[in-house]
Amino acid sequence: MRKTILKSSLLIGLTLLGISSLTNNANADKKQTKNKALQEIADDHKSDAGRYFIQDYKTNTSDNLTPDNNASIDLLSQMNKLWQPGSDWNNGTRLNTKILDENINLSDKIAKERTKSQEDAAWLDDKNDMDYSVQEGLGNLTDYFRKQANITGGYTSVPSDAENKDYDTNWDKQEVTGDPNSTLGSVVKLADTLKDGNYSSSSSSKKYFKYPRPFRWDGTSVTNAQDNGVIIPTLKLSAKADPVNDYGFPSGHTNSSYLTAYALAYAYPQKFQQLLTRASEVGNNRIVAGRHSPLDVIGGRVLGTALAASILNDPANKQLKEDAYKQAQSVLKSSEADDNDYGVGNQKENAQKYNYRLTYGFSKIANSKQIYRVPKGAEVLLETRLPYLTDAQRRAVLATTELPTGYPILDDGEGWGRLNLYNAANGYGQLVSKTTVSMNAKKGGYNAKDTWSNDITGVGKLIKDGTGSLTLSGKNTFQGGVAINGGELNAANASALGSGNVINNSGALTLSSKQVTVKGSYQQLDKGTTVVAKKGRLIVKKGATLGGTLKLNGGEFKNGDKIMSYASHKGKFKKVTGLSKGLHIVYNNHDISIARK
User: Fold this and answer.
1) Assigned domain for 254 exists
2) Distances (CA, A) of 203 to 57, 61, 428, 469, 490
3) Of 4, 179, 245, 462, which one has the greatest count of Cβ atoms within 10 A?
């Protein structure tokens, strides 16, 4: 355990942290009233210094080096619960030895277990500009993007002599970052504005916290530290010999990678989660490289998220972000290469990796408590990914998909650390009240068709309006029921419709799961349509009131198939389509079946 240079102090007691009276997540959630939950989501919470980050982000300059005068340092000041900065890199005070030891040990473990291919990936992310690395989150669109952005540079493999030669980085080279006068010029400019802006650096925070990089924890000079097995062999020559002003927290590469990812994700939200996954991979590769610790990487992500939201909210960038979105939709969406894939793994694997890297499994320093906390302006990060929602609704999505309290560094006063943008892209995590979703298919993109894949809880009701199509694919338990007033609601999971009543007034309820259950009653009026896909079946636990149209898709229904069951029923469908010739539906006491005429 490499911690000899750092002064120890007593581990902060749990009672000092004020957690003895906190209840657990589930109990606190049950006690909350609906109105209180709504108010918490609507409220803007200020930082510990009494500021809103998006309003004060321009204080992040080299002239401001305290939490009081620099919003970025204030944002990351939860680190002060773990570590008290000293006058230099080797005399800080360890306040929470448990967490800091976990940080050191995890860094050691990753360094010990890394593979050659992981080392090579870490070298590439070290030497290439963050724009170039994060672009790979576009998957099969990457090469097309680079061609349209006039990107011709970038390292694509590790040179054979990298252990003996310190190669230059590609940072800020136009042939790597992109041409602002290219077909994708506005997208390039947006990425540059976020990543390379005057207030986007992590340098001031590094200088304040003075937290050592992993390869300095032995307390030796960099020459000896190069041989301690932490830094990958191909990056040993890149390590600075002078430890002064070469600190670890927060990770600058991670900060820059998230700034780039949010810019590209704003312009092309079709790859939102893939781009964030790639940003998280860049951060993780800093640990693999031995250049940063997990706490450094977490701090870089939090900083990058807050800075991205601030810059996207800045009125000076309003036209640029609109131009970048329009441009990306025009140029990229027309490409046949867009397969909505990203090579680090499938969506489930990406989600697991991303969610793990939010906390790296650190022990909590406080018990969880369900307190909704969404920073002022954070909703802009979902502006193009969930365009059919209002700002207030996007805030609700962020609130109901955020991390619980208690993790090191993440409980800043505004809530930036707890945001989980990957999960937020999957829609609501909870319905705390009546929620109306109005989609406009004529606008195209996510306005026309989207999927919510979270397991949605809560007491609220979902009302589907407009002309677009919304798919629910999670194992949902929300209690308020469903009303379909327009467009399509696609139930792609047996419990997609929650646990309440369902009424179809004038839209289409499509059953794309083999079996879909309505745990309450089901009512369809004359303007409504129930669409049953291949061999599907709607199970209504209570009574069914039928009218409107029944549409059977797939052509696989045959004599004897049951397409609906219920405790009782009233009325009949006015129109039935999709049955093969010679078949009709029969209304029985507790089900509807298909029979020969």
Assistant:
1) yes
2) 14, 8, 36, 46, 48
3) 462
Task: With beta carbons less than 8 A apart as the criterion, state whether 305 and 421 touch.
Answer: yes
100-106 CB contacts, 8 Å cutoff, 24+ apart: 100/3, 100/6, 100/295, 101/1, 101/3, 102/362, 102/363, 103/293, 103/294, 103/295, 103/362, 104/1, 104/2, 104/3, 104/214, 104/217, 104/293, 105/1, 106/287, 106/293, 106/294, 106/360, 106/361
- Shared domain for 14 and 111, answered yes or no, is yes
Dihedral angle, C-alpha 401, 402, 404, 410, nearest 10 °: 160
Asked if 389 and 471 sit in the same domain, the reply is no
Please tell me the pTM assigned to this model. Answer: 0.91
Q: Which structural domain, as residue segments, surrounds residue 440?
A: 428-596
Query: Of 385, 402, 422, which marks where a domain is finished?
Result: 422
The pLDDT tens digits for 35-58 are: 677 777 777 788 888 889 999 999
| pLDDT (tens digit per residue) in 202-257 | 999 999 999 999 888 764 434 444 456 788 899 888 887 667 778 999 999 999 99
For residue 53, the one-letter residue type is F
| H/E element, 79 | none
How confident is the model over 521-575, as pLDDT tens digits?
A: 999 999 999 999 877 899 999 999 999 999 998 667 888 899 999 999 999 999 9
